[in-house]
Amino acid sequence: MEKLGIAITGSGSAVPKNHLSNQDLTELVETSDEWITTRTGISQRCLALPSESVSTLAADAGSQAIAAAGIKATDLDLILLATSTPDDLFGSACQIQAALGATKAVAFDLTAACSGFVFGLVTAAQYIRTGVYQNVLLIGADILSRWVDWQDRRTCVLFGDGAGAVVLQANNSDRLLGFSLKSDGTQNRYLNLAYTPSALELLPNVNITQGTYQPITMNGKEVYRFAVQKVPEIIDKALFKAHLTIEQIDWLILHQANQRILNAVAQRLNIPENKVISNLANYGNTSAASIPLALDEAVRQGKIKTHDIIATSGFGAGLTWGAAIFQWGR
């Protein structure tokens, strides 16, 4: 009989070796370790070296996830890369496919900013549930240091670089228990990495624009308000679809944006602190990488065990947000 459920069977992660502490940041902008820690919970972040790329970090995380799942790269049918900072605007997933030697896998990028991993998880699951593919590698990877204004203290203290990955496989019982995804483009202006055009006259009466992307801009108050309101709601919706109560959740893994957001969401959901997984103190906000990075770390520390039920939620630019409830392992 064909297996039409999914199981998440392996994880991996990779971060640059380069660290930037809060103390280091005081040499770049007017700030302090105390100011950053009390407002964000972040102590340091990892920054990609010029020799590192989204593709190299993603391939590293991906190869670990493949090994953890007990399969080979040639077993993969699909590689999904959730990123907003590809090495190539045409996409970086194919470079990862080549680096891994995943010769049978189709590969493409998916862009949903900090919600990318959750959106990717749901997307990957549909390919398996319809019987199209058996083995999918989902990677969340971002190098936001490329797009941060290092003179803007509102944003430069927040972001870091990294990659996290999971392998999804066809399974007799379905371990993706429930999900819900949302978008609201009317609030797009609150968080942007926008293209800025400049006019260019090619010929008389033939005008085009050419330009580049500008550094990240963010209205922190609005993004905080949005996250604290919408994330508990969407987790409730996903739990309802999974026929579960909040008490049945073993772990909460939110997008690692800000410790105050993590605390506020857990409080609203009545989830005790010891069930909340947080590693943003060491990595900052790594966008699409943040959930799989936190997941992999907790799995390797022995915190998350087979059959544990995890509630996860990503939220960010778009604005987009989503939640998924899944059981770890087969």
From TrEMBL:
Gene Ontology biological-process annotations = fatty acid biosynthetic process
Extract the InterPro entries matched here: ACP_syn_III_C (IPR013747), ACP_syn_III_N (IPR013751), FabH (IPR004655), Thiolase-like (IPR016039)
Q: Where is the Beta-ketoacyl-[acyl-carrier-protein] synthase III N-terminal domain?
A: 108-185
- This protein's record includes keyword Translocase: no
Reactions catalysed? 3-methylbutanoyl-CoA + malonyl-[ACP] + H(+) = 5-methyl-3-oxohexanoyl-[ACP] + CO2 + CoA; 2-methylpropanoyl-CoA + malonyl-[ACP] + H(+) = 4-methyl-3-oxopentanoyl-[ACP] + CO2 + CoA; malonyl-[ACP] + acetyl-CoA + H(+) = 3-oxobutanoyl-[ACP] + CO2 + CoA; (2S)-2-methylbutanoyl-CoA + malonyl-[ACP] + H(+) = (4S)-4-methyl-3-oxohexanoyl-[ACP] + CO2 + CoA
Pfam families reported for this sequence = ACP_syn_III (PF08545), ACP_syn_III_C (PF08541)
- Give the primary localization class: cytoplasm
Superkingdom of this protein's organism:
Bacteria
Tell me the compartments it is located in.
Cytoplasm
- Pathway assigned to this chain's UniProt record: Lipid metabolism; fatty acid biosynthesis
Task: Give the enzyme's EC designation.
Answer: 2.3.1.180
Residues in domain Beta-ketoacyl-[acyl-carrier-protein] synthase III C-terminal? 240-328
Sample GO molecular function, one term = 3-oxoacyl-[acyl-carrier-protein] synthase activity
> Which keywords belong to this entry?
Acyltransferase, Cytoplasm, Fatty acid biosynthesis, Fatty acid metabolism, Lipid biosynthesis, Lipid metabolism, Multifunctional enzyme, Transferase
GO cellular component terms, semicolon-separated: cytoplasm
Q: Where is this region: ACP-binding?
A: 256-260
Active site positions, chain numbering: C114, H255, N285
Question: What NCBIfam families does the annotation carry?
Answer: fabH, PRK09352.1
Quaternary structure and interacting proteins, as annotated: Homodimer.
| Function per UniProt | Catalyzes the condensation reaction of fatty acid synthesis by the addition to an acyl acceptor of two carbons from malonyl-ACP. Catalyzes the first condensation reaction which initiates fatty acid synthesis and may therefore play a role in governing the total rate of fatty acid production. Possesses both acetoacetyl-ACP synthase and acetyl transacylase activities. Its substrate specificity determines the biosynthesis of branched-chain and/or straight-chain of fatty acids.
Q: What is known of its domains?
A: The last Arg residue of the ACP-binding site is essential for the weak association between ACP/AcpP and FabH.
Q: Which family does it belong to?
A: Belongs to the thiolase-like superfamily. FabH family.
Q: What is this protein called?
A: Beta-ketoacyl-[acyl-carrier-protein] synthase III
Organism of this sequence = Anabaenopsis elenkinii CCIBt3563
What gene name is listed for this protein?
Answer: fabH
